[in-house]
TrEMBL record:
UniProt entry keywords in alphabetical sequence: Membrane, Transmembrane, Transmembrane helix
Organism: Paenimyroides ummariense
Protein name: UbiA prenyltransferase family protein
Source organism, top-level taxon: Bacteria
Keyword Transferase: no
Transmembrane residue ranges: 7-27, 33-52, 64-89, 95-112, 124-145, 157-176, 197-215, 221-238, 245-267
Keyword check for Coiled coil: no
Length: 268
């Protein structure tokens, strides 16, 4: 159980989720597997999430526990691998990576002449995270492959943005009793029940965007339907008294499940 806790808190599971979405982009856009993009996304996610979660904690502590030391070591290694992978991308992909990297930095470090970072601006957090997830997992592989941003890519981007938004809302329901009231999260603002209704509404465009794509895959309607059903169940049972494992493992497994369903239904 201790290793499992470390796996979750060291952001390896969330990195697996983002990497699964990248592999889906490779598959649906007929792109060959790209190790540089895959490594950048996986190890970049590990570093950025740990930076966001632990940078201020580590800076304030005079002596670090073995747990924090191991996460710090993993983060440093992840940063180095991500930087090395960065140099194997083309220029446009590098510029896109820098843009999302700056968003990550501003998410934690206060803006000039202000003690407030982007994370603490009321209501903005979920859109920043959703933008980063959708951009890194959809646009980055496409830009690096020098493919045009066509309508199908835009719909994929919107799907990923909505999916991330939905998963964050489930997180916010679960974290309601821990979140600072000044954050004004969606459940804090409109309540848990209305947040669940909002998730239900967001699942509609998430599902039907699939049918707007030119390159429509025959099995996608059932794959996405299964995903909608799973997310609906996670949403129904979400509440502030749930264990952290409910979101940190199960909810964050949704992108991995999506990828596994794609592999299963398209296995020849």
């Amino acid at each position: 159980m201790r290793f499992f806790d470390w796996y979750l808190h060291a952001s390896l599971h969330v990195a697996l989720a983002t990497t699964a979405l990248v592999q889906m982009t490779f598959y649906f856009c007929y792109l060959p597997f790209n190790a540089a993009v895959t490594n950048l996304v996986f190890f970049g996610t590990v570093f950025s999430y740990n930076f966001i979660k632990y940078a201020q904690v580590i800076a304030k502590k005079k002596e670090l526990s073995l747990f924090l030391k191991s996460i710090l070591a993993l983060s440093v290694v992840s940063f180095l691998i991500a930087v090395l992978s960065f140099f194997f991308l083309n220029l446009k992909a590098q510029l896109l990576t820098v843009f999302f990297g700056l968003l990550c930095v501003l998410y934690v470090i206060p803006l000039a002449k202000s003690k407030t970072n982007l994370r603490n601006y009321a209501g903005i957090k979920i859109y920043i995270v959703s933008l980063c997830w959708a951009g890194v997992t959809t646009l980055l592989p496409i830009v690096n492959a020098e493919q045009a941003i066509e309508s199908d890519i835009v719909f994929k981007f919107l799907q990923r943005f909505i999916l991330t938004l939905i998963l964050i809302l489930v997180f916010e329901i679960n974290d309601l009793k821990y979140d600072d009231i000044r954050l004004k999260t969606v459940p804090q603002t409109i309540g848990v029940l209305k947040t669940k209704y909002l998730i239900g509404l967001l699942l509609i465009p998430f599902y039907f965007l699939e049918f707007l794509k030119v390159n429509y895959y025959g099995n996608q309607w059932i794959i996405n339907l299964i995903l909608v059903a799973v997310i609906s169940l996670f949403t129904y049972y979400a509440n502030p008294n749930r264990s952290k494992y409910y979101t940190l493992f199960w909810v964050e497994s949704v992108p991995v499940l999506w990828y596994l369903l794609v592999v299963l239904f398209n296995f020849q």
